């Protein structure tokens, strides 16, 4: 480090060359306040290179800080100034410069007790943080505390407490410079996204005294509410309170008129009016809502610091929109200022961060929002609870498709097992239910209907709160905030849409989902998982009958019963989507998911099918597979038992004809799941074409449709060129594609995912954030091969990654046409899409 740059300490004046990258955010912010002619005490910025030199043992170039300690009270404070505020920095050290002489001078002016308090605070903090003496020896208080602390220092250090203000300052600067390189500070800032070698600047500032005669004290003020983002003056003024030093007659005042006690607004209206004026000016000039830190010295005001107001998700939206509407920032900047994920918090209830929380367990935050309800352990109990109008939370080891009805009846879901794409997580996100999965610290005893979390036991019927945003399970009813789908939210998304990023559709299985998708302005349905429609009480028996049928004819008869119901499902979807594209995926899961597994269920099934129990049991066993996710499901089932797809295609086309009568012509999109070979597509296409021709004939109607393929196996991605020849669109099912690329079960990965991410094996959970290096390469390869064969082909992603901002940016950069995600993630995706495009 050359000494030239080390001596580059700069007085913060309007024209000084202060740069955030060298001097840090605080120095730059102070310069802006100085430029606004606010009463900022004299301040100096020490640049990062000088801080490094000081840490390395070079002398502090004091000469460049002229007249330091020459203010009336002769005290200075030192604050960290990192490149970004959230990277923190060593703690502020105040009252540097106090010694026996200044102490006497202060005692004459502000009284001996106050002068003692300031001196004592500095000696204690210097001894502990700079001389690194044992904190226990410096916990003096009471009458002789200052004397005892000075003696203690002398005994331990074999010298008097340093009286030279420049030496004190040099030691403080050295200690703060070195603290920045300590392992804890480094880890903390890296966790906030700072690079390992992030620079630190320091600011040395004359101290304004907040103790003494007349109105003296210190405070903070901000002009918006941190939780709601609405205009509101908040903060406090602490009279006779100087930094951490509490003076004689210390007293806190409200800022604005308040019936509970006196306020600054009443006691010192001039000062209050100045603060309001400064606040308005800071918002306009700094283009940000600021919290201002101020000191009043005998009725005179100083502005010593300003920081960006802390804000909740809803406040961040409200603030960005209000600043754009006031013409302070452009609309596109408002769009860029809100973290897309923050929008998910606005759609649901949230636990009020200000209220106490009794956390009993933690898991993966699988679906955001919060809800309070009584514990139930079965889907049936959930339905009974809903029938009594009692909010309940379904607690399961893991959920299975049969639990869907229970999930519908619950206000939140909690599972002991599972990861971000396990059944419970996917369904809960689709329903907009708060959900925690993989809460492995829980132990569920469904027989005795108890839930154990550590040494606490909860029984069925007891109330808990699920915070799906943080992944925390809370005992009892926590205080909740209402959703905030207000004008600011709509305005921000309208600006986002105007930016024209990648398209956003919704994954919607039911009319309710479709209505949510419309409410959030999705551009269509990108995935309708039709199997969810079969768990209905009316359909399940027909499904089971179909599974047990020996001959195709019998299968067809059973499916005939389902056909009108499916037609109704699709007609409703088409009508709600009013001409927007609707992509319907043909049946995907293995059939055994529709069969009971316990003895009681098997017995009931035997009774309803009028078959001996042994036949039913044998059949169920025959259908069970070692690895059902890689077994007879998706298109493999479609080809082996073609009657199911025939029925679905017919239902889709009949619904197309019906819905087209009622409104805009419908062009359905039919999607084939789990394809791995071109021939599979040809076989299905031939049958679907035949069904289309039959329906056209029978109904004397004309319609078109688009047939596409879900790319969910690595082979389909590699062979996307051939597959594209028969497809109008390809949609990457990145849940299964991730599972198959990694050879990692999406339902079991939760057990070790946190260990893997913790040890850096995976940078992130690949089921949550698209693995751009591996799975991403398959996406790019597949898209490129498909486009080469078929340049106009529509390409999209409909796995859970479609709602993840980083993954959306990847799809945007790859030139995909749209992403499709759970309806409640559509706003997040729209904002992320806009940010990729801006
Ligand atoms: C996928 O695999 O990415 C997908 C969307 O389908 P599912 O989650 O229903 O398997
Ligand atoms: Mg899939």
Automatic annotation (TrEMBL):
PANTHER family according to UniProt: PHOSPHOENOLPYRUVATE DIKINASE-RELATED (PTHR22931), PYRUVATE, PHOSPHATE DIKINASE 1, CHLOROPLASTIC (PTHR22931:SF9)
Function: Catalyzes the reversible phosphorylation of pyruvate and phosphate.
E.C. number: 2.7.9.1
Entries under PROSITE patterns matching the protein: PEP_ENZYMES_PHOS_SITE (PS00370)
PEP-utilising enzyme C-terminal domain mapped to chain residues: 487-836
Entry keyword annotation includes Transmembrane: no
UniProt KW Chaperone keyword: no
Domain (PEP-utilising enzyme mobile): residue spans on this chain: 390-471
Keyword terms, alphabetized: Pyruvate
Protein name (database record): Pyruvate, phosphate dikinase
InterPro entries given in the database record: PEP-util_enz_mobile_dom, PEP_util_AS, PEP_util_C, Pyruvate_phosphate_dikinase
